[in-house]
Structure formats: C-alpha cells, structure tokens
Automatic annotation (TrEMBL):
The keyword Isomerase does not apply. GO terms for cellular component: chloroplast stroma. Keywords: ATP-binding, Ligase, Nucleotide-binding, Purine biosynthesis. CDD domains: SAICAR_synt_Sc. This is Phosphoribosylaminoimidazole-succinocarboxamide synthase, chloroplastic. PANTHER family: PHOSPHORIBOSYLAMINOIMIDAZOLE-SUCCINOCARBOXAMIDE SYNTHASE. PROSITE patterns: SAICAR_SYNTHETASE_1 (PS01057), SAICAR_SYNTHETASE_2 (PS01058).
C-alpha cells in the first residue's frame, strides 16, 4: 500500500526528457522521436483520480504489451520497447482526437455508458439504432461502436458523421480505424471467452505516423480500458436480475457513486482499504488469467520512481 506510484517526475531525473502530458493514469514524456509512457498506480473514474492501487501500473503496462504482441495481425502498434515493468517506449505519431469505444452489452453506470443513456429513453446512440425492451446487462445483437471526443474534463459521445463533418478525421481514416476497432474487440472477446471471461466493452486509441500508417496506441484490453465479466455465471445471474460477477473497477465506481457525487463534489471520501486491495487482486487475477503467466512482483525495496528513472535513462541511451 505504501509503495505505490502516484506521481512521476522523470524529466527531473533523466537528462533530455521533457514532460509532455500528465493523464489520469499515464504520464507521457518526450525524447526525440520517441514517447516514454509511464503507467502509474492512479485509479481514475468519473474523469478524476479516486485512489492509488498497488501494482496497478505494472499490470496495465504488461497486459497491454501482451495484447499488443498478439494483435499485430489486425493492426500495427506504436510499441518500441518496455525497459521497465511500468514503462513503454513508443513511436511518436499524430493522435486522432477520438476514442473508439466498442460495446457488446447494454450496461454501465457513468453518464456516457450505454445503460445510462438507454434507460433515459435514448434509442439512437452515436449512430446506432437500439431496439425497445432491452434490460441492463443484456447482450447486444451485434457489437457496436460508440465514439467519444475529449472535452475539457469529460468525454462527449459523437456520431461517425459528426466526426467526419467536423474534420476530426477523414472518412477514409475513420473507416479504417472503425474496422480495426471492431476486429480488435471481436478477437479480444474470443480470447477472453477461451479463458472464462466476457469482454463486455472497451476503448481504443489510434494515431497516424508521418508516412500515413495508422497504429494502435495507448492501451489494449486492460481492466482500466475494458469491462470484464465472469462467463460461467453470467447467464444465471442475468436471468435472476443480478449484477454480473465482474473483474474490473465497476464495484469501486459504484461505491463512490453511492457515497458521494463523484462528478460534482470538490473533495471525495478516501477509498476503503479493503476495496483498494480487492481491486489490486482483480487486476492481478485478470492479467494472470488472460496471459497464463504469474505477475512478477519486484523483490527489491528500491523506490519505484528511482527504479523507473534508472531503467528509462539506460534505455534511451541505447536507442
């Protein structure tokens, strides 16, 4: 609990490194033609940081690397190397200002989740026509794409037409990325089901290199970007109107939603330690279930930030 990576300042420790952005979970640094992406242990939801989760950054980084390696048949990606358990070095590219959210079920609790908008009567969402009579956690007849764009502090759902007409993406680029996103999700669902899990929904980000190659960036099928349910119990629990057994952060989202207004309250209550530990275990469980490997817990007591600084400096010298 005490050795979490909440903040990074690699630009003060590694010569030639410039801080480019601090995201909700990842801190991004620039070094020439490369980006250094540091995945912290920060836990975000409702467009803000809720807590720090032990080993979360390592799990997210290593989960993404596993999926990046196994989805090259669908799309190239920006990964160059991973010099540390929390770090990925990537090629620089021009990032599309759209998040490609793919959904297979009507569920969720956030303002932009499919169940939230559906329960309010919306039947055309991001260009997808939805039938009447669906209930929470029901499987869609086909996977759908519900893109969002970034506002100042929240995501805004958009239709494909709005993306193209506003100039956020060309039609050619959008069509290519949409195809890649749906193919990635279908493959992810297939792999998840082979391991007793349901990949419910996820988000992807893409960028374009100087030579025009569209690449997958950021993260892939992690418990932060995705919702997972336990497959074996889904049908019985759905028929009994019970919430699915999940392997993601939904239970922490629900705790904050039940104990405060996470969108408007200036100060949030501290996440209970038992929930923080439970979430850490779920992240590790998901990684080990999908990859069939044990998460290697660093044995050294070296502070995480010091270890990362040393490994990144060495990797950049060798690029």
């Amino acid at each position: 609990m005490v050795n979490c990576l909440g903040e990074t300042n690699l630009h003060l420790a590694v010569p030639g490194l410039r801080l480019a952005a601090k995201g909700k979970v990842r801190d991004v640094y620039e070094s020439g033609e490369h980006l250094v992406l540091v995945t912290t242990d920060r836990q975000s939801a409702f467009d803000r940081v809720l807590a720090s989760i032990p080993f979360k950054g390592q799990v997210l980084n290593e989960t993404s690397l596993w999926w990046f390696n196994r989805t090259r048949h669908i799309t190239p990606n920006a990964v160059v190397s991973s010099p540390d358990k929390n770090v990925t070095i990537a090629k620089r590219c021009s990032v599309f200002p759209v998040e490609f959210v793919v959904r297979g079920y009507v569920t969720g609790s956030t303002d932009t989740s499919l169940w939230t908008v559906y329960s309010k009567g919306v039947r055309n969402y991001c260009g997808n026509v939805l039938p009447d009579g669906m209930v929470k956690n029901e499987k869609l007849s086909a996977n759908i794409l519900t893109p969002t764009t970034k506002a100042v502090d929240h995501d805004v759902p958009v239709t494909p037409e709005e993306i193209i007409n506003s100039g956020l993406m060309s039609k050619e680029d959008f069509d290519e990325v949409r195809s890649k996103a749906l193919s990635l999700f279908a493959y992810g669902q297939e792999v998840a089901l082979e391991n007793g899990l349901i990949l419910v929904d996820t988000k992807y980000e893409f960028g374009k290199t100087a030579d025009g190659t569209i690449m997958l960036i950021d993260e892939v099928h992690t418990p932060d970007s995705s919702r997972y349910w336990i497959a074996d119990s889904y049908e019985d629990r759905f028929n009994s109107t019970l919430e699915p057994e999940n392997v993601d952060k939904e239970f922490l989202r629900l705790w904050f939603k039940n104990n405060c207004n996470p969108y408007e309250d200036a100060v949030l209550p501290e996440a209970p330690e038992d929930l923080v530990c439970e979430l850490a275990w779920r992240y590790i469980f998901l990684f080990e279930t999908i990859t069939h490997t044990k998460l290697e817990i660093p044995e050294t007591q070296e502070p995480i930030h010091q270890r990362i600084s040393r490994n990144v400096a060495e990797a950049l010298r060798n690029l």
